[in-house]
Amino acid sequence: MADFNTDGERLPAPRGPLSRLVVSAVRFYQNRLSGLKMVSTCRFEPTCSSFALEAVSRHGAIRGGLMSLARLAKCGPWHPGGYDPVPRPKSRAR
Prior knowledge:
mainly alpha
């Protein structure tokens, strides 16, 4: 299944078993639990679950997971929300 971010770019496949496990957990949330809410409550674009999928796919389970937790920590009335994309990986100079 091909995944795309909010800019329409194809996401890379998650690398490693831990990344695939995290992506599966987020997909489970999206498909089975998120729909149980009466209304959409995310104040960010992309949504927090989409952010987590992209962060883990681009940065791996550890770094992407930490980025996702930091994003969830912003979720509350003290933060205005808005457009908050996943940062691009820094290219490594040789």
